[in-house]
């Protein structure tokens, strides 16, 4: 087929494959031509920041068609103004400077007194690397890494940063290849050993061409740690499935959206009220607090799923039982805060009663988290 019917949100259109291959505006909808990124905005799905998953063909995300080889992974660059004469010369010189900088960086000699034979390179084989620079720390995600100035690949507590941005936090005059280290080894050394691979100078992937478009938020749901169609918080790097977040965000809500974790930062503590008063209060007065607490517990429980445990039914799994609490909270089944807290405590009791080591460890972690989060509320 030379055309594919596509949808994004409530908008329908037709994707013309020839224009798609040529990286032109290829989607025709309501008498207008769009690039995929523009059609995503037109369909009010720009919060997802991933047109490949936002745009569907017969209910199937374009990402799936790309992964299965039915559609190439085209990159759509931002519109550029065609210039001539002096401007072209300036652009040419700018490109030469960039190439020279990259070549110089690629041949930098990094002082390293470690004996390479004593280094266990297996610790660098995973998809992520713990990194530090001075007193700052983060997690480097290899699939996001491009170069020092391109590719927000380092996740700190509050931001996604490029290596050059990360080094500015502690060592503004430092060199990212030398001063950012993982397991004691500088990133430059990891590049020479091919444990970390930079992109080519002329790379035209999404990360290199549109470095700030889609990399400000996580690629996995903060609660269940899986991918899919995510809603991105505008105040922090977190992203969520609509079904995982509390409360569920509106599918096409306009403007800025903040997750419950960020909203709670601006809520005054109720510590002046005694605990009994809070417990006897209607849930409606503390809905945000209950949602905040439950999101913490759901995320923690997902780190150690208790499925396929011999001799036990799946319905005793902590995440599943907390999922029921979430559903009841959404349905307004709890009248007072005490009823909500009692339901959570029942989950703890039920898991501990099974006397299974995995359940017990998870339950103790959840209890500690419960005390840490609930008491300040």
UniProtKB/TrEMBL annotation:
- Domain spans labelled PHD-type: 218-265
- Which UniProt keywords are listed? Bromodomain, Metal-binding, Zinc, Zinc-finger
Q: What residue stretch is flagged as signal peptide?
A: none
Q: Name one GO molecular function term.
A: DNA binding
What's the protein here called?
Nuclear body protein SP140-like protein
The record, for Pfam families, names: Bromodomain, PHD, SAND
User: Per its UniProt record, what PROSITE patterns does this chain match?
Assistant: BROMODOMAIN_2, SAND, ZF_PHD_2
Tell me if Zinc is a UniProt keyword of this record.
yes
**Residue stretches making up the Bromo domain:** 308-351
Q: Where is the SAND domain?
A: 1-72, 116-197
Q: Which gene encodes it?
A: LOC107583267
Q: Entry's InterPro entries?
A: Bromodomain, Bromodomain-like_sf, SAND-like_dom_sf, SAND_dom, Sp110/Sp140/Sp140L-like, Znf_FYVE_PHD, Znf_PHD, Znf_PHD-finger
* SUPFAM superfamilies on file: Bromodomain (SSF47370), FYVE/PHD zinc finger (SSF57903), SAND domain-like (SSF63763)
Q: Which CDD domains match?
A: PHD_TIF1_like
The record ties this protein, via PANTHER family, to: NUCLEAR BODY PROTEIN SP140, NUCLEAR BODY PROTEIN SP140-LIKE PROTEIN
Asked if Transmembrane helix is a keyword of the record, the answer is: no
GO CC annotations on file: nucleus
